[in-house]
Amino acid sequence: MTTQTVLRSPWAGHADAAELERWTAVAETVAAELARDAVDRDRAGAAPVAELELLRSSGLVNLLIPRSAGGEGGHWETAFAAVRAVARADASIGQILGYHFLNSACITFYGAQADQEAWYRASAASRWVWADAFNPVDPDLQLVADGEGYRLSGTKHFATGAAAADRLISAAVATGGEHDGELVVFALDARGAGVEHLDNWDHLGQRASASGAVRFTEVAVAAADIIGVDTGEPFSSVVTPGVQLLFGNIYLAIAEGALARARGLTLARKNSWFLSGVETYAQDPVVHRLYGGLVAKTQAVRALADQLNRRYDDVAGLGAAVTAADRAGLEVAVAGLKVVSTEVGLEVASRVFEATGASSTANAVGLDVYWRNIRTHSLHDPVDYKKIEVGANFLNGTVQPVSLYT
């Protein structure tokens, strides 16, 4: 059996004000460009080729890569802030960016120390966008020894961004060869021989996320494609609370985006309800009350998300020193964010229509995109199980088994 130890983390400390300001501004510039045709692209549902090129050219894809490997040396707090800025304008592209950060970070979470810089250098130099085919509820892939390497076959039914990405990360238990019986994590050319993108994502929301299936047919997996082996160390499993934290930030961003769009629509309304006694809807105390509740709840979610984004740097920076208790504390806290961000995001994205009126339901307005996106993505894993996770921990100190959902 192969053993490996991650000795250190490339992330240390926290982002300073200059880093946060710089990259938030970059992300907001990207978001402004995406916002110009976000509704049209949502309707089309085409692979986001130009949008991912925008992420590359902005430098965002290299944000978390260490400076020693040609990257920007940024922090997770900054990365999540960038995702939120992008997702306010386009939740599909925000999801792809967040997945890119977490998938490329698997170089550290699963990779042998000696190999990490080479992977990061290659990614930084080519400005790779990383997607994944990790969906754990699909049947397992087959990774079978073939000479000095392996052959990969099987299908993963959800592979967000893969059709337009550069590298596709996945994992499978090896049969035979050097890694027999081990869970091998590897990265492939997303458009390599035997990799087929089925372009079958036809869902209510996240339409521009290219989240369709990917089929592997006798794909060659060489030793150079293998990032590492999942040995079950607590540090490696920190990636999963990171995914759930990403979701919380995306749902928050959707709420923020919906509020901003609805505010503009409300201010543009030229009349008022005949019983209100005021001239415009923007002066109506009933409308004020509606927005007041939604804004206050969103502010509360933002405060929790900001706190946890910073905390993620603390845990990720520990490297091999991460304990099961460190990981569990982060997991439960993030589960709490998942609960409130889901519920507040759904409420905001639905109730803003009460302030904007029937005219805002026109397809050309596109206000429905926010609700469709969060309604679709929030079903990724049942939020009721997050409530159980938080409640059981509160009462009994119970921690859920480590998985790709907890």
From TrEMBL:
Domain called Acyl-CoA oxidase/dehydrogenase middle: residue spans: 144-219
Enzyme Commission code: 1.14.14.21
Top-level taxon of origin: Bacteria
Locations listed in the record: Cytoplasm
Enzyme class, spelled out: oxidoreductase
Domain Acyl-CoA dehydrogenase/oxidase N-terminal: 25-124
Pfam families per UniProt: Acyl-CoA_dh_2 (PF08028), Acyl-CoA_dh_M (PF02770), Acyl-CoA_dh_N (PF02771)
Keywords: Flavoprotein, FMN, Monooxygenase, Nucleotide-binding, Oxidoreductase
Catalytic reactions on record: dibenzothiophene + FMNH2 + O2 = dibenzothiophene 5-oxide + FMN + H2O + H(+); dibenzothiophene 5-oxide + FMNH2 + O2 = dibenzothiophene 5,5-dioxide + FMN + H2O + H(+); dibenzothiophene + 2 FMNH2 + 2 O2 = dibenzothiophene 5,5-dioxide + 2 FMN + 2 H2O + 2 H(+)
Record-annotated Acyl-CoA dehydrogenase C-terminal domain positions: 247-381
Pathway(s) where this gene product acts: Sulfur metabolism; dibenzothiophene degradation
Family: Belongs to the DszC flavin monooxygenase family.
Record-given protein name: Dibenzothiophene monooxygenase
Species per Swiss-Prot/TrEMBL record: Arthrobacter hankyongi
